[in-house]
Amino acid sequence: MTFDIINPEVLGTPRGWNNGMLAPAGGRVLFVAGQTARDGSNGELPSGFVEQFEATLANILAVVREAGGTPEDIGRLTIYVADIEAYRSSLKTLGTAYRNQMGSHYPAMALIAVKALVDPSAQVEIEATAVLPPAAQ
Length: 137
Hints:
This protein has one domain (4-132): CATH 3.30.1330.40. It is 26% helix and 27% strand. The longest helix is centred in the middle third of the chain and has 18 residues, at 49-66. The chain is an alpha+beta fold. Helix 1 runs parallel beside helix 3.
C-alpha cells in the first residue's frame, strides 16, 4: 500500500518517523501483537540491545510478510524499551539496524520506556499496524 504521508508544518520536520500515515481506501488492516527478539526455533534472544532491536523488527516483518505485506505496508510502530539509556546511546547503530529491516520507510512511531517487559530477558518489544492491499478476488 502507498500511504499519504501527513507531516503538518506546525510540528516541524520529523527525523526517522512520520507524524501521520493515511492509508488508501479498501486496504486490509493487520494488527501485529507485541513481538520480541526471541527466536521461534530455539527460544533464544540475542544479547545486545541493537541486536534485539533488529531481530524484533525482523519478527514483526515475518508476521507482515506472512499476511502478504511488505515493510512499506506498516503504518505505525510502537516500540517499548526496558532501558532508555541503552536506546539513546545506540542511536547511530539502531538507525543502521532499522534500515537493514525497514529500508527507508518511516511509519508513524512512538517509543515508550517501560520498567520491564513480560519476557524478563527482552530489552525491546515492538507492535505494529499495517494496511495491506485488498485481497485478490
